[in-house]
Structure formats: C-alpha cells, structure tokens
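Archive entry. Fields below.
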Amino acid sequence: MENNRKKDLLVSSFLVMFIIHSNQVGVGILGFPRYITQYTEQDAWIVVIITGLIFHVFVWMMYVILGDDNEDIIDLHKKWFGSWIGGFLNILFMLYMLLGAVIVLRTSIEVIQAWMFPELQTWIPAIMYLLLTYYVLAGGFRTVVGVSFFGVILPIWLITTAVSPAKFSSFTNLLPVFDHSLKEFAMGIKQMTLSYLGAEILLFAYPFLKNPKKSRIWAHLGIMGTTVIYLIVMVISIAFYSDEQLQQTIWSTLVSWKMVELPFVERFEYIGITFWCFVIFPNLCLYIWAATRIGKKTLHIKQKHFSIVLLFLVFLACVMIATREQIDMLNTVTASIGTYFFYIYVPIIFLYSVIRRRVTR
Amino acid sequence: MRMLPKRDLAAELIDVKWFQKAPFKKEMTLDEMLEDLSKSSDFVTYHNKRSAISYTIIYFASIIDPAQLHRNVLPKLNECEMKSLEELESKIPIQNLEITSDAKKIQERLMNGYLAVRLSNDSNVLLMDLSLTKSRDLSAPEIEFSVMGPKEGLIEDLQTNMNLIRRRIPHPKLRMKQVTIGTVSKTKVIVIYIEDIASEQNVNTVMQRLEDIDFDIIADSSFLGQMLEDNSFSVFPQMIDTERTDRITGHLNYGAITILAEGSSNALIGPINFGQLLVSFEDYYLGWNIASFFRIIRMFSIIMSIVATPLYVAVLTYHFELFPSKLLATLISSRSDIPFIPVIEVLFLEITIDLLREAGARMPSKVGQTLGIVGGIVIGTAAVEASLTSNILLIIVALSALASFTTPVYRMTNTIRFLRYPLILFAHFLGLIGIALFSLFVLVHLIRLTSFGSPYLAPLYPPRLMDWYDSFFRLPYVMQKKRAHFFRTEKVSRFLDKKEKKRNSLDFDEQ
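PREDICTED_STRUCTURE:
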C-alpha cells in the first residue's frame, strides 16, 4: 500500500535499514564484550547471534503491531487505550527516548574525556552536539535519516581495522564451544540486549516510509548488519584478549585499535574516536526526533518549540551526570528498561494487536 | 505575494521577498516623455518641415546605427509622398517595425536603440529597430580552461551567446524565454531549456523566481544566481557559473536549465548537485577510466585542501602522540625555534597565501607573475628562515592551496578556501573532535541544502544507485543509457537500448 502522506516528507523504504542499524550501533560497541564474557566467556559470540535472532523476531512483531494503516505507535496507543492511558504510555515512551539520548550523549562524551581530553568540561561538547541536533531536527525527518545514512556509510571502513588485532589473536580462545549452562546464556542475552536496543525507532519511523509494507526485508537486513558487526567485534575481542584482561578493559574495542599500525599514525584510536562522532550522532537525532513526535501528537506542542525544551533537558541531564559510576548506573537502568520493553511490552502488545484485529474483523 | 516552496528556517529569515515587485504605475504622455528624454545631449529630435507632411524623427544617437539611418530610413522618408505611417511602414526595408501610441512602450524602445517617426503631431509613432551593439570577439574560456575540447567561451553579447547555444543544439524543442529584470538596468534575461527533457516543475520554479525579482541593477548573471538560490546563507554554490558552451550544452541535454543575462559572459546552470562541482567538462573528452580517476583525485584534493591545515593544528596542539616517534622528531625539530602556538603559525601562513591570491587576482597578468615569485618564494623562504613558520607547514599550506585549485568550478574554490578558517579554529579549541563536529555540521548542512528543490547531495543521499554512472566517477557512454533521476526528466532514455547484444563467445586467437 502506498503512503498518502505528503511525498516530500517521506523517505525510501530501504533506508529503514540504515535507520535501525545506526540507532542500534552506538557507544555500546566500544565496550560490550566485557559485559557478555562475564557470564559466557568464550561462548559470548553465540550470545551475539542468539540475541540478533531474537531481535529479528521483535522486528517481525513490531511490523505486525504497526499493521497496514500507516500509523505509528503513538496513534495506536491512543486508538487502543484511549487518550488518558494511551497518553500516559506515550509519555513513558518519551522519557525512555530521552533517557536513550542522554545515555548516548553522556557516554560518548565520557569516551572523549577518558581518551583524548581529560580536562574537557562536559557542557562544551554537549552544547555543540545538541545545537547540531537542533539543526538536524529543523530539517525534518529526511535530514534525520540522512544523518543516520552517513552515520553508517562514513565510518563503515573502521570494520577493516579488525584485521590488525586479528594478527595478534589466538583463535583457539574460542574453544570449547557451548560450554555454559542455559542460565549463563540467559544472563548474557540480557546483557547483550542493551547493545541491540534502538530497533524500537521503527515504531515511530514507520509512517514516514514511502512503502512501509515492503520495508520489512530492509529492517531485517538492518538487524543482520548489526549482528555481523557485533559478531566481528566479539570474536576479535575473545581471541585477542585473555579472559582476565578483557574483564579489566572497559573500552576493549578502543584498546584493540592500538594494534593498528599505519606509517603516519601511531595511535589509531584517536582517529577511531573522531570517526565515532559520526556513529553517535544519528542515535541522538533519532531519539530526540521520536520524543518530539510524541510531544507533538500527545501534548500538542509544535516540534519546533518542543525540541528546544527537550534538548535543554538532555543538556541538563548530561551536565549533572559526572562520575563513571553514575554513567554505569544509567547504563544498567536503561538496559533493564529496554529489556522489559522488548521482552514484556512488545510481546504483550503484539498479542493484543493480533487479538484485537481478529475481534474487530 | 507568491507562495514560496517549502523552505527551511534559515531561508525564511532572509526571505527573497526583499527583491519582490511592488505594484507601481505612473502614466506619462508622449510629449512629457519626449521632453524628459531631451535632457540628455545624445537624444535627437529632428523636425523636418520641408517634406509634404512634416515629420519628426526621434532617437538616441549613441545607440543607433547611423549607417542604417542614412541608407535605409532618411532616403525613404524624403523621396516618397507619404500620407500615413502605414504607408511609410510598407516602404522601409527594416524588420521589427511597429506603430504605437503607448508612451511607455515608445520610451522602452527608444532606450533600446529604436528610432521613432512621428507625422505632424500625431499621437501614433512608427518604431523601427536600428540598434547597434558593439561587443568583443569570441575568445577562449579564460576561467574554465581545458586542454582538450572546444575553446569557445561566452561573451558579453546576449545575441551572440544565444547564437552559440542554438547552433550547438538545433533541436525544435530548445526553448529560449525572455524576462526583463532590473528597474534601472532593464537587463534581458534568457531562460534556456529543452522542453521535453527539462522537468516542467523546475522550469516553472525558475520562471516564477525570475519574474518575482525586484532589484535595480543586474550587472552580471551572478547577481541572479544569488537571488535564485534556495538558501542564500550557504557558502556552497547552488548553481554553476560557466562560460563554456559545451558545458551548457551537456547540462541542457541532461535536463538542466540555463540562464543567460545581457552583458554577462557567464551562464548559470541549475539545478546542480555536489557531484557536478567535481566535473570538468573535459572529463567527457577523456576516456571514462581516466576521467573517473581524475574525479576521484579531485574529490580527495577537496578533502585534503580543507582538512590538511586544521589537522596540523589539531595534532600539534593536542595529539602529539598520534604520530610515530620518528615522524614526530622531524616535526619537533622543524618547529623547535618557532615562538607561536600552531594556530597562529597556521593562520599566518594561510592568510599570506590568501593575500597573494587576492592580490594576484586584482593585478594585471604581467605583474601577477612577479607577485607569485615574490610571494611564493621570497616570503615563504624568509618566513621559514626567520622561524616564523616551520617548513613542514609551508609544504602543507602550499599543497592545500594547490589542491583547492583543482576544482573545476571557480565558486567552489572559494568555498573550499573559506571553510578552512572555521575548521582551523575548531581544531584549535577541540582538536580532532572539533574537526569531527564541524565536519558533521557541514554534512548536515549539505544534507539539508537543495538546488531548485532538488537534493544537493544526490545521488549519494537520497541514495540513487542508478544515477551514479556520472557523478563521483564516470562510466563509459554505453552504460549511460538514462538521464539522471536527479533532473526529474520525463524523457529518460538517451539512446535506444539494443537488447539483442551479441554475446562475445569468441575465444582468444579466433576470429
């Protein structure tokens, strides 16, 4: 079915691949192997694949929830639960999106502070990022998608740097395979979910696709891309580090970049972090964009004005979070909210939508 | 007030309405008008009483062709016994004759080199075109030089330019529409497009925007360029200024629109996208592989030219450890005597180069060469010897200046030089992260930018793989079957696709 919205505002269906992929890959990839190997050690790469497959199921569920009517989750909430409960759910969603934005921004600034500018005040890069975000939002959804498109394309070459640590790796570290209990796998999957969060942006972007029905395959490809990249990073991390080493390295991917040798460049991680700015930025834009959509539809405030309020809130939150412990705590909180969202909320609403559509038919 | 097409915030702030026409009408009678004009000393009103019916001829002596006046007009006026203007009209062997009593029209025609004949004190006059235009001869393009290909550039005369273009495209659908713009300069502006190929929407946009322009003088087509642009805040050119007729022809064929202005030796081409700024028309005369190679080189040279000195600032201010120790030793030894922080050192040299360039552009060409030697060799060497700058920086600055000149579009060269300065400052304050943030800003700006409503970064974003055959590289002509989607053309195919291609089944050493 073709979309009836004004043509100029829509984006090609296949871009949903970049939207989902760019929103999933963020700061997490710089350090996630440590958290997963806590539970499953050398089997962590299996966890990556399993979680990826689980997210394919979630994407399928989300498509079922969204149905054929070119509505996003905001409309559906209102339609199904009335404007009070629906509105409440939407506000919760908005807070979740804001939390996502805060965590992305604050963690990326932390990386910059930890590796390049120890003296740098948090507010300086924060304000620059957020002003840029406003510039993007003012350009509309097409610009947001443009940023996520380039956020995937421009830094994609970084994946080739995996070759350098691979030269110093012993891939026998990956053995023995399947050496952990189900419980350990479950714990690993729970940790892994944080890195896969971001696919929920589909619930908001859906009505902006030119041909939403046909975008399905591309959404799955987006998840697949994420899985492949995570898998490469995970395998390299397991093979490159010993187990204890990995447990002590917060930013394992960053540290493994030290192995990259170029005639002009000694410490490649600086260049890596510089390009990382392109990876972080789409996350910020997409999350705040989704939050402004909720503001527009639920609170009836223009995106033009509401985005300023939200950006200011994100700014305040970022400046207030100061220590590594707070950032870690925020990550844990977001991880558990995200986990509940995907493993409880999405299946429930999926069943609800299926039953409701059966009944009304 | 017309409805503007969807625009972004930046454009709204400095809306084009500034240059829009306000309704303005003031009628003058013929006699008042003539009296007004006679205040100029080159205005001639010659009254002849001796002929059968007394007549007056009126013209501006400075802009009519006296030879034609004496050969074709005066003899006819005197020899025949004419009773009416209609009779006279049939006898004078000149094209563009008309009879009118509209004072405004008469004034307009007189200003354009027409001659008016008036019988006794009749309110009707006969207008005839005796205009004389002086212009220089055709010459080779000076800004967009090329080694291969035609050496034919536009000149300041509109008629000649139109002739050059129509001779190259003898296509019945080649349309040339005239608009007059400028309350003072009354500049004739011609919009050229091929009707079946150019998208109607684009043509309408251009015509509408041109007709809405209210400005006093259009000294050059670049005036129009700035008023037609979608976002006049942007430093990126949204139309290409060109003096090459082959380039105009090529773009017209793809579905672009060309704008010529009287008295301007540059044409404007739009809509364009970023990729086209890397295209020298010579690329089409070279083989596709060579041309693609050069385009990629140009792409790199743009990036290098913008980023090289900011990287120097960033690395030497914050990220020493980025360099391997051997390289670092060279750098440090070359900088050891320099009393400035890197940003001052870089700005000093960058501004010197820009001064040289500005001075070179304003100088007569013979002095210009001396200037290059004085600037490049003397100042450069002296600055290094006086330890004001390191010689490594001198190499970097010279290279990036050189790289900025590889861009085939002159306006883009300026953009590149301009972008470097904010980037140097960002690099000074935030090192590599500053460079990344500013690059992000430029990227977002480019994503948002449009040229006549078409996305500027196409075919990169929105991604259209079909259009890639002629953007950052160029494929052979056989593979350029279709016109780019970018121009929204209706006539897509460029030549018939011969489907029954022969399979190349022969092996080596067979015939």
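CURATOR_NOTE: Chain A touches chain B through 36 residues (CB under 8 Å).
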